[in-house]
Amino acid sequence: MPVFDQSTKVGRKVVDPGSDKSLPDGKSLSYGAMTSTTALAGTTGLDCKLVHGDRYQIVNQKMTEMIGGDEMTMIGGKETHIVGGNEIYMCGGNRIDTIVGNLTMMVLSSTTYLYMGAVTAIYMATKTDIMLGGRTSDDATWDYQNKVFDGENILLQQQNIGATNVNMGIQVQFIGLLTQFVLSLNLGVNAINITGNLFKTRGDALSASLQGALTKLIGGEVGAQGGTAEVNATANAGPHICANTPA
Predict the structure, then answer these.
(1) Where are the domains of the chain?
(2) Which of 5, 21, 58, 169 has the fewest CB atoms within 10 Å, i.e. is most exposed?
């Protein structure tokens, strides 16, 4: 097709060439403020972009973006962020995350948390921990807890304690059935110990009691004994039966 065929290839914005000096309607762009940072309505800056509609961008290679000042991103709808490889996030200052709705975090591999400073966790409602596997807790120094109520339902418990130091002001126990098998040494210091047992069975493989001094101060004591029966038997002798009744 010939180039000069007297047909219009690109239509003019202004039909009359005499009025070419008249610019079209700038819409959100102010021609009088073209050299200012607020020439485009709703934006502020030397390089501004205003898109009335969808925007689609594809970068096939690397992308590097450096921001020397502050950055603010406002998203009025949903956001989806998908990273196919590793992701590194580093914050040199303080960080505040505010979530108005629910938070769900799923980690399909191992997780490591490292805190170099003090950690404070505040739960305003009930916290539930469900452990489908084992749990190991190592306290290098000490573990201090203040609880209003502590309840545990344990099917099977095993404790290996090297040394225990217990300082109790008042201890009250109400036990329906207690069975103890003591194979080690248990030392306890109680100021006041009140124990009520409905039924108690205790089997000790080795029991030792060491007392330096025992002092009893009794204002008055009244005792009544119905009877005492003792049965002893040896390998080479017959049974020995002794019965004592009060005088």
Answers:
(1) 172-182+189-203
(2) 58
pLDDT at position 210 is 46
Residue 27 structure tokens: 């819409």
Write down the pTM of the prediction. 0.49
pLDDT digits (tens, 9 = 90+) for 80-105: 999 999 999 999 999 999 999 999 99
Cα-Cα end-to-end distance for the chain: 142
* Residue 86, token pair as written in the block: 């590793």
21: pLDDT strictly greater than 50: yes
Question: For 244, phi and psi rounded to 5 degrees?
Answer: -120, 135
